[in-house]
Amino acid sequence: MSKYHMLWMYVQNSGKQQLMLSFDEIEKIEGIPLDHSFLKYKKELCAYGYEVEKISMKAQTVSCVRK
Fold first, then answer.
1. For 49, phi and psi rounded to 5 degrees?
2. Rounded to 5 degrees, what angle do the CA atoms 58, 60, 63 make?
3. What are the backbone dihedrals phi and psi of residue 66, each rounded to the nearest 5 degrees, phi first?
């Protein structure tokens, strides 16, 4: 199972066209803080029908969009 499986399921179950989550929200959903490995794992989101559109370090947000 993926390190970010709970997050991917959350995004998929949202049913939204676009979803923006803060780093804090991701930590609450997944139970672990977002770290540099997220860059490697973000490709897995494609299997759930979404992709990571943008990661903002300044705003501390991740934007996901339905493919």
1. 85, 10
2. 110
3. -70, 135
Rounded to whole angstroms, the Cα distance separating 25 from 49 reads 20
Tell me the whole-structure pTM to 2 decimals. Answer: 0.92
For residue 27, give the nearest of 15, 39, 40, 38 by alpha carbon. 38
b/e 49-62 (16+ beta carbons within 10 angstroms → b):
ebebeeeeeeeebb
- pLDDT (tens digit per residue) in 11-54: 999 999 999 999 999 999 999 999 999 999 999 999 999 999 99
Distance CA 12, CA 38 (A): 17
Structure-token pair, residue 61: 């947000």
